[in-house]
Amino acid sequence: MNRPPRVVVADDQALVRTGFRLILDADGIEVVAEATDGAEAVDAVRRTRPDVVLMDIRMPDMDGLEATRRILAGTSEDAPRVVMLTTFDLDHYVYAALAAGASGFLLKDVTPEHLVAAVRTVRAGDALLAPAITRRLVERFARRAPESASLHRDLAALTPRELDVLRLLAQGLSNAELATGLHLSEATVKTHVSHILAKLSLRDRAQAVVVAYETGLVSPGARREGEGADAR
């Protein structure tokens, strides 16, 4: 894709919307619409067909979680990527947002550089899962349902190596870290990740993380090898 990403910004705070627009415009990223609540966001997406939606979780009338569900319901390949905007320790809906199909989340005090990088990252089809804060939130709010896991996804479709990749991916490891930990090339890791997504009918790595927790492949509270209890 050579054209700049097209973005919808949904937040009930005008200051947040204006600030994000200025940052994105300065980097050549087009903000095609703004929305003050979830209903406006759904309408804006239908009208403008953006690549990425920056979606506040807490908004009046229809919140960002319900808006995300509606935007991504029965999605096709050209559906937008949704990134949730949140404030750490206040929002208890991050896991549910990922389960609804969001590709990750950003803190509202994100730096301009990280905001731009996030939009370009999810537009390229990746997920915002690298920061340790994401992993901690997913672990904290994950709700395992072992009795229904087999109905949700059939992990038996994965090879032993693909299961290894999924375990580490769910702990927040990047492709480079996966390659090092499994003694594989990054190209091979990318191939394994692609196979996992295809076999489990998943949109991206964010949904793969959700499946790993829901099926019990990874337990809430699990930490990366060598990561201390006070890791950030």
Explained architecture:
- The structure is a single chain.
- This protein has helices spanning 14-26, 38-48, 64-72, 94-99, 112-123, 132-141, 146-152, 160-170, 175-182, 186-199, 205-214; strands at residues 6-10, 30-35, 52-56, 81-86, 105-107.
- It has 232 residues and is α/β, with parallel strands linked by helices.
- The protein starts with 5 loop residues before the first strand and ends in an 18-residue tail after the last helix.
- The chain folds into two domains: 6-128, Response regulator (Rossmann fold, 3-Layer(aba) Sandwich); 146-214, Arc Repressor Mutant, subunit A (Orthogonal Bundle).
- The longest helix is centred in the C-terminal third of the chain and has 14 residues, at 186-199.
- Helix 9 (175-182) crosses helix 10.
- It is globular and about 50 Å long.
- Helix 3 links the parallel strand 3 and strand 4.
